[in-house]
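This entry is retained here.
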Amino acid sequence: MKIKQIEIKDFGSIYRQTIAFSPDMNVLYTEKERTRREIQAFIESMLFGRTDVPYAGVLWFESGGRNYRLTRDLHREEPYSELLCEESGELLDADHISEEKMALGISEAVYENAICISPLKGNTGAEIVREVQKQMTGFQITGDCSVDLGKTSQRIKMTRKGYQVQVERRKKADQLAKEKISAQIKSIRREIRDTEDQKNQLGEQEDVLRMNEESNGYHLLDERIGALETRNQAQIAGMCMTAFLALAGALLLALEAGSTILAVLVGISGILAFIAELNFEMRTVRELEKRKRMKSRWITRQNKLEGGRSSLEEELREKNMELSNLTEELREMEEYAYLPLMEEVEIDALNLAMDTIDKLSEQMYRQTGNRLVRTMSETLSGITGGTCHELMVDDEFHISVDTGKEVLPIENLRLIMVEQIYLAMRLAAGELLCGAEKLPVIFDEMFCAFDPKRLKAAVLWLIESSGRQVIISTSKKQELDVLQKTGISVNEISL
C-alpha cells in the first residue's frame, strides 16, 4: 500500500492543501511542528474514520495493484464517506476499511506502533533505555509497544486488593448484622415469656372470679339485689298506704265525729308511722345501691381481665410474628453465607485474568518473540551498515548487542545505538504485524540524533531492503540535504 496524494480541505489549522507523494522516498519539511502533526493526524483520521474532530478531505492510495480514492466530510449535517476504485469505478463501503478501528487489515494500535514512528521519549539515557526495554516487552508479548504488562499486572493486583478489602468489610458487616438479629431474637423471646407470664396471671384471676361465680356468690348477689328491689317496692307501697289511711282517718274523725283533737292525733300517728317506714325504705335503698356497686365492680373487673387477656394475646401474636420473621432472616443470612459475594466473583475473574495473561504472554512469546528478535537483528545490522551483528534478548527481556568484537548490554551502549535499536524494533514490528502487504512508514523527527553517516545507512537500507514507502517528517533542513547527497530520488515537500 502506498499513499499517492492527499487533499486537506479542512483539518485543524490547514485549509485547501494538496500534497503528492512518491512511491519511494518522501521528505516533508516544515519548521511548524503543528503542521507536521496535523498532516499525520489527517492521514490516520482518513484511514480509520475518526469522528472526534470535524474535518474534510480526500486521500488517494494504491493497494493490491489498484488505485482508490477515499473521501470524507464530517462538516456536513450527515457525515459523508466514499471509497471509489478508480480502475473499475466501483463505489465501496468507506466505513468497511475503518470498521472496528481496522484499516487495510491492521488495527489502529498497530498503525500507531509500526507505521508512525516517533523518537523515544526521555530526558536521560537511562530513561530512554528503560523505555526501549518496556516497548520491547510489549512488542514481543502483545504486538503493541504501548502495553506495559508489568503495570497491567500491578493494576490488576491493586484492583483485586480493593475487592478483597470490600469482601472483608462485607463479611464483617454481615457478621455484625447476624449478631444484631440474634440479640433481637433473644430479646423478643424474653418479652414473649414475660407476656405469657402476665397472661397466665390474668388467667388465674379470671379463674378466681369464675370460681366465685360458680360457687353461687355472683348468683346470690343477684338474688339479694332482686329481694331488695322487691322489698323497696313493698315499702314504698306501705308508705303510700300509711299516708292514705292516716289522712282518711283524720278527715273522717274531723267531719263525721267532729273531734278535731282526735283527728289531729290520728294524723300525727300516721305521720310518725310514715317516717318510720321511710327510714326503713332508705336503709333498703342504701343496701340495694351497695349490692349494685358490688355487682358493677365484679363486672368491671371481669371485663378488665378479659380485655387485658385479649391485649396480651394480640401482643403475643405480634411478637411471635416478629420472632418468625427474624428467625427466617437469620436462616437466609446463614444460607447465603455459603454463596460467593459479587466481590469474590470479581476476585476470581481477576485471578483468571492474571493466569490468562501469563499463559498468553508465554504462548505469544513462543510464537512471535523469536521471529521478532531475528527480524530486529537483520534490521539492526542493515541500518547500522553491519556494525551490529546480532541482537539478543533473554527470558527477562534484557537486551544485548553483539558488535562482532564483544557482547554489550543495552545499558552500556551509546545513546545513538539505543536509538538505532529502537528504530530496528519498530521497523521489525511493522514487518511482522502488517501482514503480506508492504505498508508505508512515517517517521516524525525520528533521525534528529542520527549523524549523516547513520542517517544515510538507515535510509539506504529502507529503500533497498524494506520495499516500503517512506515519509520522513522533519524540521531539520540538514536531513534533507544529507538525503539528497546520497543519490536517492527524494520527493521534497516543503510547507
